[in-house]
Amino acid sequence: MINSKKLYKIFSKNNISFFTGVPDSVLKYFTNFLENLKINNHIIATNEGSAVALGIGYYLSKKKIPCIYMQNSGLGNAINPLISIAHKKVYSIPLILLIGWRGDPKKNDDEPQHNLKGKITTKILKLLDIPYKVIDTEKDLNKVNEIINYSKKNKCTVAILIKRNKFQKVNLKKTVKKNKKINRAFFIKNLLQSIDSNTKIVATTGYTSRELFQLRKLNNIKKGKDFYMIGGMGHSAIVSAGVAINSKNNVICLDGDGSILMHLGSLTTIAKLNDKKFKHILFNNNSHESVGEQSTYSESINFELLTKSMGYKNFRKIDNTINLKK
C-alpha cells in the first residue's frame, strides 16, 4: 500500500508544492491528506481542464512545476489546455498529472464506463505525447522521482497512473457540514411518490443515481422513467434539457453541486431554451460526496441569484420538510 505522506515528501523534495484537481475515489486518501495539511496551495477545481489551466498559471508565475490530479475519466476534459497550451511544441510547460486509473484493462472488474476508459487511458496519453509511469506498490515510488526529473529536463507534461485501492486510508479531519433537517434520499422518495407516471428523470452521476435506483427497488415505485448518468459528470442538466425539448412529458434533472459547477455555462443554454417541461433540482451538500466528501466551495454561492442571472425564471429553496410537497 502507498503511504500518502511518502508520496507528498517526494513531491516536496522535487520542489512541487502546488496541487489542484478534481477529487477522485482512487486518489481520495492522498487528496484527504492534502486537505488535512490545510495548505494554501491545494485548490480543488470545478473541472479537469480548469485544474490544468490553473496549474499552467502557477508555472507561468512561479516557474515551478504543479501537480494536477484527476480520475482518468476526466482526462478528456483536460485535453484542450494540455495540447493547446502546455504541449512542448506550443509553450512547453511542465506539469505532473496524478491520475487515478479506474478500469484496469488487466482486471476488467470495474463498472462498464470505467472499463471502457481504462482500456484506452494509456493510448490517450501516448496520443497526447505524455510520458507516464504506473504506480502499483510503494516500491514503485522511485518511479515518481524518475518521471518528475524527466519533466524538468524536457519541460513537458508527464503522468503518474495509480490503480484502485493502492493508498493507505486517510480520513478527512473535518467533514462537510450537512443539513440534518432534510436529506437527498428522503427527498427522492417523496418525489417518486408525487410525480406523474409519464415523468422522465435524469439523475447525475454518483450517489444520486444509486439512491434513485435503490429507492425505486426498495419501495416498488414504478411511476416515471429514469436515466442514470453513470458517467459524464457535469452533463446531467444539459442531457435533461435535450430530453425535455424533444418530449411532451415533464423532465426532472436531479443534479449535484459538484456536477452543476463542472460545466456551469450549460445553464445559459437551458435558460434560453425556456422549456417549461424542464425542472432542475439541485442537491447542494457542498461536497464531492461520492469520492470522499471534499469541498466544492459551494457554501458561499447564492444559487438563486446565480441561476436567475443566467436566465432561469423561477427558484425555490427547500431546507426543511415543512414545505416539501409544495
What would you note in describing this structure?
Helices cover 40% and strands 16% of the residues. With 326 residues, it is α/β, with parallel strands linked by helices. The strands form 3 sheets. It has a 6-stranded parallel beta sheet, sandwiched between helices. Helix 7 crosses helix 8. The longest helix has 16 residues. The N and C termini lie far apart (51 Å). The relative contact order is 0.12.
Keywords:
elongated, alpha/beta, 4-stranded parallel beta sheet, 326 residues
Strand content: 15-25%
Secondary structure: helix percent: 25-40%
Q: Determine the structural class based on helices, strands and strand pairing.
A: alpha/beta
Number of strands: 12
Name the average pLDDT.
92
What are the secondary-structure elements, in order, as H or E?
HEHEHEHEHEHEHEHEHEHHEEEH
Query: How many helix segments?
Result: 12
Order of strands across the main sheet: 2-1-3-4-6-5
Which stretches are poorly predicted, pLDDT < 50 over at least 5 residues?
none
Distance between the termini: 51 Å
State the major sheet: 6 strands, parallel
Gyration radius, to the nearest Å?
A: 21 Å
Please state the overall shape, judged from the principal axes of the Cα atoms.
elongated
